[in-house]
Amino acid sequence: MTKPTSTSRRTLILFDVDGTLVPPRGVQISSETLNLLKRLRETVQIGFIGGSTLKKALWQLGNTALEDFDYAFAECGVVSYIHGVPLPTESLVNLIGENNYKSLVNFILHYIADLDLPIKRGTFVEFRQGLLNICPQGRNTTPEEQQRFEAYDKIHNIRSNMIQALKTAFPTYNLVCAIGGRTSFDMFPRGWDKTYALRHLDISDFDEIHYLGDKTELGGNDYEIFHHPAIRGQQVKGPDDTNQFIIQLLDTYMINQ
């Protein structure tokens, strides 16, 4: 995609990545969605907000994603680019301190070691710049194994119970948890949810800011930004739902032209 020449676009459409622009975990964006985004960007500004690393976002959305989107927010906005220009970053470790961070990781690993799950693989804790991604059965799993854990978790509440244990063990850390995806959850400083990305925007520059996401319920990683007073939230159930919403927007803009 090429950057539009229009500078009068005062509507911004922000998209979640996993479960919104692409199916959860390990899948790249479809050509259909890319083409719709390209058409949409001719009329409005677009951006993505993901909880994962920038490296993963570029793999999912394409190596030119920093040029294809006006706003690129990885790790909930702790790693950010606006019109391809990087912004300063912060760090979870710097915020809470190395010793506190080690205590947190040690607790997580001990807790997971004591869990009796149908399977366990590898990469139970993934450090990112602004958060920890915690995966009780391990991130190195097949799509079928992820689906099995998701079903098991709905019955046994593995993730929600672990989140409660973390809240009880570390009440002074001022960290919050949000479930995103099928097998893991994120832990990050309060306020470093996806609304963190809004710190990089001047809200008055826009007449409308829309956000599309799938995990909009309480405890989901889209909840806070979905309910932000400056945001018009739209819940979707997957990329097909997102595509239909974009098509509806395009039809609306054509009628109003």
From TrEMBL:
- Give the superkingdom in one word: Eukaryota
Location(s), subcellular: Cytoplasm
GO MF terms held by the record: metal ion binding; phosphomannomutase activity
Q: Which GO terms describe its biological process?
A: GDP-mannose biosynthetic process; mannose metabolic process; protein N-linked glycosylation
Pathway listed for it is: Nucleotide-sugar biosynthesis; GDP-alpha-D-mannose biosynthesis; alpha-D-mannose 1-phosphate from D-fructose 6-phosphate: step 2/2
**GO cellular component terms given for this protein:** cytosol
What EC number(s) is this enzyme filed under?
A: 5.4.2.8
Q: Which residues cross the membrane?
A: none
Q: Which residues bind Mg(2+)?
A: 16, 18, 214, 226
Tell me its cofactors. Answer: Mg(2+)
Q: Which UniProt keywords apply?
A: Cytoplasm, Isomerase, Magnesium, Metal-binding
Q: What class of enzyme is it?
A: isomerase
State the CDD domains in the record: HAD_PMM
Locate the active site. Answer: 16, 18
| Keyword hit for Magnesium | yes
Catalysed transformations (reactions): alpha-D-mannose 1-phosphate = D-mannose 6-phosphate
The UniProt record gives the binding positions of alpha-D-mannose 1-phosphate as: 25, 128, 139, 184, 186
Check the record and name the InterPro entries matching this protein.
Answer: HAD-like_sf, HAD-SF_hydro_IIB, HAD_sf, PMM, PMM_cap
- List, alphabetically, the NCBIfam families matched: HAD-SF-IIB
Record's function text: Involved in the synthesis of the GDP-mannose and dolichol-phosphate-mannose required for a number of critical mannosyl transfer reactions.
Which family does the record assign?
Belongs to the eukaryotic PMM family.
Question: What is annotated about its quaternary structure and interactions?
Answer: Homodimer.
Q: PANTHER family given for it? A: PHOSPHOMANNOMUTASE
This one is known as Phosphomannomutase
Q: Which organism is it from?
A: Psilocybe cyanescens
